[in-house]
Every structure is written in C-alpha cells, then in structure tokens.
Write a structure and sequence with these properties.
Layout (H helix, E strand, L loop, with lengths): L16 H18 L5 H14 L12 H7 L27 H18 L8 H17 L6 H4 L5 H15 L3 H5 L2 H5 L5 H10 L5 H26 L22 H7 L4 E2 L4 E2 L16 E8 L5 H15 L4 E8 L3 E3 L7 H6 L9 H9 L8 E6 L8 H10 L3 E8 L9 H9 L5 E3 L2 H13 L1
Parallel strand pairs: 3-4, 3-6, 6-7, 7-8
Antiparallel strand pairs: 1-2, 4-5
Helix pairs in contact: 1-2, 1-4, 4-5, 5-7, 7-10, 10-11, 11-13
C-alpha cells in the first residue's frame, strides 16, 4: 500500500506594495471629491506614501495651488505637462504591475484633479477664481493642451465642456464687478456663454473700467464664435441657377464631361482621336433678387445661448452677397435691431434679458418685412412658452410660402426645454423645432439660399 502523498499548500499571491500605495492615493481623492468630511486613516496613509516616494506633503493640501507647489519644488514643473496623455498612463513595462513611477504619477494626477474638481460651495472671490484658472491650466497641460485651450473650445471634447461648466459656475458664485474693476483679473477670465450671460444681465450696473472690461470680454467671445461659424458658412452659394442667361464661354466654366459625351459621335477609330465640333459650358448666373432672412429672437433669459449664436450667425449671413437680413428681438415688446445686424456685439448690448414673452408683437413686426414670401426665410428662436394664438400666425406664414425655421436651441450642449404643445404642432406642420448644434441651422439656411 502506497503512502499518501502530501501536497504543499498553494503559495499566497505576492502583494504589490506599489499597487496598494496607488490605491490609497486614489481612494483619498474620491473621498475628498464626494465627501466633505476628512478621513483620518486615509490622510495618514497618504502622507506616508508621499514620504516613501519622496514627494512633498503639500500635494495633499487642496488649499495649496499647483503654482505654489511648483514654485516651492521646481523639479515637479517638468513632470506635469503631458502627465495624463494616454501613452504615459500605462505601467513602466508592458504586462508589469504598477511600479514606483506609477505611484508618483498617481500623486501628481490626484493633486491636479483635486484642485480643479473640488470647487466647494458658497461665494467665490476673484483671487480664488484666478487660482482655479491657474490650476485648470496645469490640468490642460497635463492632457497635452495649452492652458485655456479646452475651456475656450468646450465643444471639442467632454473634458473641455466640463471645465468650461466649472468655470461658469465659479463665475456665477463670484463678485463679478470686483473682477471687472481690475483689468489684470478681467483679462484672465475665459469668455464663455455663462460669463456673457452674466455680463449682459449686469451691464446696466457697470460703468467706467468695469464696463469697458465687460465689453471687451463680450467682444472676445463674439469674435471667437464668429470665426468658427464663418468657416461653416463659407462657400455658400446664393440663389438658383438662372438658365435663361447664356453661360459665359470661359475655360473655368467648361463642362468637360458633357463636352466629351456630346461629341462621342465624332470619334475616329482610324485616327484614334475625338473631334470636337461644339463646346459645352456650365450655367453660373444666379438669381438677382436678394433672399430675405428674417431672424426673430426671444430675449428671455433662458434663450441666451441660442440668442448669442443666432445673432452672430445673422451678421455673417448679412455679409453674403444678395442676402437681406433683418433682426428682431422681443419680450413683451418687439425691437427692430436690423440697423446693427452687421455688428452682433452692438446687438447684444442692446438686448435686455429677462421679462415676459409675447411673440405676437414680434410677429406683427416680422410680417411687415415679408415682401416676396417664396424668397423669404423666417428663423424664430424661442423656447415657445408663449401665447398659443401664435401657432395660427406660424401656420399662416408657412402657408404663404415663407421658409419657416423654428429654433429651440443651437449651442454646444443641445439641451433646451421647448414647450411640448408648440413642438408637436410645429412638427405636424412640417417644420420641426431645431435643437442641437448650430451646424443644423447653418445647413438649413444654406439650403434655402442655394435652392430657394
């Protein structure tokens, strides 16, 4: 009888101390972001981790800015740019677990995320906003961008939208007039739609240096948005081809395909040549009657984003040949802003956000501007929480032949509340409310101008 064999117990899996240290740092980060009460055990463990890897404990203090840390410990300045780009986020060796470098990276990443995303609540001072902007700039460097690049173009990616939203929230909690009165602080503000809304609401209470700085910020935002929209409107052709006008017989208008097709009967197999006895040219003449574009804007506070974008867009289309643009803003009164349609900055300064809404007064003014219905587009920008008698006006305008384009929101987020009663009836009329990116409205207007 054979003796029973004894099997050795399986060896306990080896513990990677670096993985544990990294986990401690990230658990502490999550605790600070989602729980305002300090966790003493995590704090002690995190201090021990930083001491072990030779990093300063100042990285754990959310009250210490990244700029201050870098000034005190200059050797860290070179580690932060590109810290969070994808190729730098893996372990030191493929297939290996976290090493000392991963723990160090976790400590630096935690500092950036903590300072940028733990914004607290309550009032914000100008100094606190300036410090947050500096910290956000370091985070943008860490993901491979220039400071301010993501916040200045929130539509480019999810992180940019989040950072712009955080900055906007801080602006709302800040004493804005204090910042505007200081040119140095005002220049550091990132122009966003949230900031523009704040400035438009408060412009009547500003004067002197503060008012000048507010205007400069609005102008910067308008110019930045206009630059983006202008590229989307480029190459817009205006009007139908007028085939009653003979084509110009110049080389750039030569229709090569049609010329070859029509002359195929002249192909000589013996000579292996195509003899052309007639050239064909493209028609390029377009209608000479200007297309009329009537833009009606609800200037209530809920429509600021769409109002700003569409006001700028109207000015760009007004610069195209053969486009006659009219601009009307309304609340309980209607205001004809057509004389300033080429300057969206001046238009915005003349708006008065808030108040009630009565679209019927704007419709009366808008209908007076319709001379040739089939050569007219009317863009109506509103959340449509309005007098339901306005629907009959919309239907009458649509039946007359006007290209009616209702707009609920045209912004980077695309989120906007629109009255469901109006939304359903406008859709049934064949003119659904446009919501989403402003490219949708640009496409609608380009179609009208090219084919109308």
């Amino acid at each position: 009888m054979s003796e029973p064999t004894t099997q050795a117990a399986p060896a306990a899996p080896s513990v990677n101390p670096h993985a544990n240290r990294r986990q401690v740092l990230y658990w502490r980060l999550l605790a600070h972001l989602f729980d305002h009460e300090e966790q003493p055990s995590l704090e002690r463990a995190s201090v021990a981790v930083l001491t072990d890897i030779g990093l300063p404990a100042a990285l754990l203090d959310p009250a210490t800015s990244v700029d201050t840390v870098v000034q005190r410990f200059p050797e860290l300045a070179g580690e932060l740019p590109g810290l969070m780009v994808p190729e730098n986020l893996g372990p030191d060796e493929p297939g290996a677990g976290p090493g000392p470098a991963e723990v160090r990276r976790a400590a630096l990443v935690s500092k950036l995320l903590l300072n940028v995303f733990a914004t607290g609540d309550g009032n914000v001072t100008a100094t606190q906003l300036a410090r947050w902007q500096q910290d956000a700039g370091w985070l943008e460097r860490a993901v491979g961008c220039a400071p301010g690049e993501l916040r200045g173009h929130p539509a480019r990616g999810e992180l940019g939208g989040v950072l712009a939203g955080l900055e906007g929230e801080l602006v709302r909690r800040m004493h804005l007039r204090e910042v505007l009165a200081d040119p140095k602080l005002a220049r550091r503000l990132t122009p966003t739609i949230t900031l523009v809304e704040q400035l438009l609401r408060d412009k009547a209470n500003l004067s002197g240096v503060a008012l000048a700085n507010a205007k400069a910020l609005i102008r910067r935002y308008v110019d930045e948005v206009a630059e983006v929209l202008r590229t989307q409107v480029e190459k817009t052709s205006v009007g139908q081809i007028d085939r009653s006008v003979p084509p110009k017989r110049v080389f750039r208008n030569l229709d090569l395909r049609r010329t070859i097709w029509k002359n195929l009967v002249n192909w000589s197999p013996e000579d292996q040549r195509l003899y052309v006895d007639r050239l064909y040219f493209r028609h390029t003449a377009r209608r000479t009657t200007p297309a009329r574009l009537i833009v009606v804007v609800d200037q209530s506070g809920s429509m600021v984003d769409a109002m700003v974008n569409c006001t700028i867009l109207a000015s760009i289309f007004a610069g195209l040949p053969k486009v006659d643009v009219h601009l009307i803003a309304y609340d309980t009164r209607a205001l004809d802003l057509t004389p300033w349609v080429n300057d969206p900055f001046e238009v915005l300064l003349r708006t008065d956000l808030g108040g009630g809404t009565d679209g019927t007064v704007a419709m009366r003014l808008a209908r007076e501007k319709i001379a040739d219905p089939r050569n007219t587009a009317m863009v109506w920008i509103s959340d449509f929480y309005d007098d339901r008698a306005l629907m009959a006006e919309f239907e009458a305008v649509h039946r007359s032949g006007v290209r009616f384009i209702p707009v609920g929101s045209v912004n980077s987020s695309g989120h906007q509340s629109v009255d469901s009663w109006f939304r359903d009836r406008l859709k049934a009329m064949g003119t659904p409310v446009i919501s989403g990116h402003i490219r949708k409205l640009v496409a609608e207007l380009k179609t009208f101008l090219s084919l109308g």
